[in-house]
Amino acid sequence: MSLRPILIHPDPRLRRTAEPVTVHDDGLRAMIEDMFETMYNAPGIGLAATQLGVMKQVFVMDCGGKDDPPAPMALINPQVIETSDEMVLSEEGCLSIPDVYENVSRPDRVRLAWTDLDGMRREREFADRWAICAQHEIDHLRGRLFIDYLGAVKRTLITARMKKLKREKARV
């Protein structure tokens, strides 16, 4: 396992749409292990392959609380089957937009279908933090960021802040 660099907005790869995974092999398993290690190290609760510059429909998440045992999940080729009509406003952040947190409105429940590491089809309903995280990561696979739900002025300010952060990191 190894840590991988996380792309920082406004990297154009974050706006690309991921391709379906067609082969479940050792390379996919190794990438997912790297994704978990990178996510936990960041620290974060979710990470899409596109955030690592890998344009594949894969994301990992672990939304358990601090006192809960780890509950890592890897979702390959996830599909939204159903969303609730009830919306919830919650604060979101993103490993590709560090230290920025904004309120976003999303459905409070979502039913997903995906394949697991063995290529088996799975389906489950997610609620609360798990639902928010899953929707956030699926957005990444579609080339969308949580700041796209914000107004134009706020989005522009955040993008300028990220450009400055990238310049500062490049100097170090």
List strands and helices in order, with pairings.
Elements: H1 26-41, E1 46-48, E2 58-61, E3 73-83, E4 87-94, E5 97-107, E6 109-115, E7 121-127, H2 128-141, H3 152-171
Antiparallel strand pairs: 1-2, 2-3, 3-6, 4-5, 6-7
Would you summarize the structure shown here?
By secondary structure, this protein is an alpha+beta fold.
Strand count: 7
- The value of Rg in angstroms is 16 Å
The helix count comes to 3
**Poorly predicted runs of 5 or more residues:** none
Highest-level CATH class: Alpha Beta
Protein model, in words:
- The structure is a single chain.
- The protein has 172 residues and is an alpha+beta fold.
- It has a single domain, classed as Peptide deformylase (Peptide Deformylase, Alpha-Beta Complex).
- The protein has three helices and seven strands; from the N terminus they run αβββββββαα.
- The strands form two sheets. The chain has a five-stranded antiparallel beta sheet, with helices on both faces. It has a two-stranded antiparallel sheet with strand order 4-5.
List keywords for this structure.
alpha+beta; 172 residues; 7 strands; Peptide Deformylase; two-stranded antiparallel ribbon; five-stranded antiparallel beta sheet
